[in-house]
């Protein structure tokens, strides 16, 4: 698992961030460019396979949301909603639906989501 590097607001480091520090020129030269994806913060990058995986790897959701990334809509195992959890950006796993815990800011995970 990658260590946490980038700083968030007020110096807080996001617990689930997997982004690596460094600007555009700081990506390891030993890695082919197709293996690297830049985050919205130009000082951070992730591995390409972490892009559009449903998890907030960059710490600012830029690996999951436009305009930095164009990801397909939520897959069949996901529910689209404004998430209340830092780990998810625009979709949550359906297994979190109807579990009596708010995961979406509009509570749609408890009242509209059909569940797993």
TrEMBL record:
Domain LDLRAD1-like C-terminal, residue spans: 72-111
List, alphabetically, the SUPFAM superfamilies matched.
LDL receptor-like module
Which Gene3D superfamilies does its entry note? Low-density Lipoprotein Receptor
Q: Which UniProt keywords apply?
A: Disulfide bond
Q: A Pfam family this protein belongs to?
A: LDLRAD1_C
Question: InterPro entries from the xrefs?
Answer: LDL_receptor-like_sf, LDLRAD1_C
Segments carrying the region annotation (Disordered) are 1-29
**What name appears for this protein in its UniProt entry?**
Low density lipoprotein receptor class A domain containing 1
């Amino acid at each position: 698992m990658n260590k946490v590097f980038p700083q968030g607001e007020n110096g807080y480091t996001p617990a689930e961030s997997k982004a690596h520090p460094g600007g555009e020129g700081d990506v390891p030269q030993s890695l082919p460019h197709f293996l690297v994806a830049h985050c919205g913060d130009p000082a951070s990058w992730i591995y390409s396979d972490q892009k559009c995986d449903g998890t907030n790897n960059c710490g600012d959701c830029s690996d999951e949301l436009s305009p930095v990334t164009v990801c397909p809509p939520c897959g069949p195992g996901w529910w689209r909603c404004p998430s209340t959890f830092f780990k998810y950006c625009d979709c949550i796993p359906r297994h979190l639906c109807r579990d009596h815990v708010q995961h979406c800011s509009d509570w749609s995970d408890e009242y509209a989501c059909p569940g797993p």
